[in-house]
């Protein structure tokens, strides 16, 4: 009998039955069939400690015995307060206020509402649109769909429903791009701001790594340049660090590569170590201060039922402790070395006719192919080799859990390379 579960992003006519997961430990998933699959993508990039981490599991159990949930409207509790303090401590200087919500998409909705209301409250009511980048992905809710890449961003069907925002070209300079390359990207951004700044509330970006839009990587200088442009044109800078946060790019936050503080920053995926859905939208004093006032317009009208959920906050605190005590940034550096050696430095792979580009940043690597056809069948190929790989579009990528050992990492890269060396393209 087929299951009533409706799977995401699936073509119902052609989808193959989803393997049933019965457990997981470390970087491995355990299937009902008895297979153990090494998860190359740590469940959409969030299970950064892997599965069944004893400290995270214990934190949830302990908190469940005390307080599972309470509304944050008019009430507070220890885990919400402590986590907010920790997030303020570890994020770039100046982000001092934390608004919780339940997912990355909602965290971005909160960021956009906050930016727009900030402009109204500070005397710029005509600044009502967002400026986003091509190749952006900021979530699947209606507000977020409108700031995803309007052409390739999988939501074009809904174009008529969505508010229209401004878009600048995606940055093209690589991570170590030259000043001239970055300068060209910033000129393109300036061009849009010059024409439309009087109606733009905020510039939104996934800093350094546009993830779901094709793992497009760029230079820290682009972030510094964007910060300066936002200041020049009275536009808030919003960093969507839902994917990049908590080490994915090699530093705790992508913003840390550039020494830039955005006005608003959104965290989710890795926030709870992936163990529960939650998000945090952080704001600077300047943004927060604009909301202090006497009119009805000064209240921020948003409040998801599960914001600040005690279980989520408690497990997020434990996740951060493990991250720091076990020096995860060093683990990420080791993963990065392996990814560079095995993929970037592999001549045969880079010369393969079905490989358009290979990119590595932190604990992220992608092999880009000219067309999606070149990746048809790769998931079942990888499964036969004991690896769970789930490419999208033209991108075969890995974003492993940080506890992935060097030999597990090479098992993943070996499978990625074998797909090309053993394929019909050979
Ligand atoms: C995943 C993601 C989101 C959406 O988060 P959800 O929790 O799936 O709603 C937003 N922005 C970025 C950059 C993401 O990678």
From TrEMBL:
**Molecular function in Gene Ontology:** adenosylmethionine-8-amino-7-oxononanoate transaminase activity; pyridoxal phosphate binding
Q: Does the keyword S-adenosyl-L-methionine apply?
A: yes
List keywords of the entry alphabetically: Aminotransferase, Biotin biosynthesis, Cytoplasm, Pyridoxal phosphate, S-adenosyl-L-methionine, Transferase
Identify the residue position(s) of the site Participates in the substrate recognition with KAPA and in a stacking interaction with the adenine ring of SAM. Answer: 9
Provide one Gene Ontology cellular component: cytoplasm
- Amino acids binding pyridoxal 5'-phosphate: 104-105, 240, 304-305
Family of the protein in this entry: Belongs to the class-III pyridoxal-phosphate-dependent aminotransferase family. BioA subfamily.
Q: How does it assemble?
A: Homodimer.
Quote the protein name from its UniProt record: Adenosylmethionine-8-amino-7-oxononanoate aminotransferase
Supply the source organism for this entry.
Answer: Vreelandella songnenensis
């Amino acid at each position: 009998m087929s299951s009533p579960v409706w799977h995401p992003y699936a073509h119902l006519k052609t989808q193959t039955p989803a393997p049933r997961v019965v457990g997981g430990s470390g970087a491995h998933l355990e299937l009902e069939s008895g297979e153990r699959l090494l998860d190359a993508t740590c469940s959409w990039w969030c299970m950064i400690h892997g599965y069944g981490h004893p400290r995270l599991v214990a934190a949830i159990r302990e908190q469940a015995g005390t307080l599972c949930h309470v509304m944050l409207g008019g009430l507070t509790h220890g885990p919400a307060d402590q986590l907010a303090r920790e997030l303020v401590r570890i994020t770039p200087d100046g982000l001092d206020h934390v608004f919780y919500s339940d997912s990355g998409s909602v965290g971005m909705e909160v960021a956009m509402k906050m930016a727009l209301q900030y402009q109204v409250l500070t005397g710029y009511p005509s600044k009502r649109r967002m400026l986003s980048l091509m190749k952006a992905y900021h979530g699947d809710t209606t507000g977020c769909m409108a700031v995803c890449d309007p052409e390739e961003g999988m939501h074009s069907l809904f174009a008529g429903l969505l508010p229209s925002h401004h878009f600048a070209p995606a940055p093209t300079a690589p991570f170590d791009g030259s000043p001239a390359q970055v300068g060209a990207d910033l000129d393109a951004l300036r061009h849009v701001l010059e024409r439309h700044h009087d109606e733009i509330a905020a510039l939104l970006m996934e800093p350094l790594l546009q993830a779901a839009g094709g793992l497009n990587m760029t230079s820290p200088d682009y972030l510094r340049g964007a910060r300066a442009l936002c200041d020049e044109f009275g536009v808030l800078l919003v960093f969507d660090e839902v994917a990049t946060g908590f080490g994915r790019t090699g530093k705790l936050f992508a913003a840390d590569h550039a020494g830039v503080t955005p006005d608003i920053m959104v965290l989710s995926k890795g926030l709870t170590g992936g163990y529960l859905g939650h998000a945090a939208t952080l704001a600077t004093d300047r943004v927060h201060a604009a909301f202090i006032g006497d009119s009805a317009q000064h209240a921020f009208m948003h409040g998801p039922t599960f914001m600040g959920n005690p279980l989520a906050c408690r497990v997020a605190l434990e996740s951060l402790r493990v991250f720091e005590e076990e020096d995860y940034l060093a683990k990420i550096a080791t993963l990065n070395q392996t990814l560079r050696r095995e993929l970037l430095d592999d001549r045969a792979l880079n010369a393969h006719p079905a490989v358009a580009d290979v990119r590595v940043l932190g604990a992220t690597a992608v092999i880009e192919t000219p067309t999606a056809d070149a990746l048809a069948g790769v998931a079942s190929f990888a499964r036969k080799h004991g690896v769970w790989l789930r490419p999208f579009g033209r991108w075969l990528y890995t974003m492993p859990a940080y506890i992935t050992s060097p030999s597990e990492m090479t098992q993943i890269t070996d499978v990625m390379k074998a797909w090309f060396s053993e394929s019909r393209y050979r």
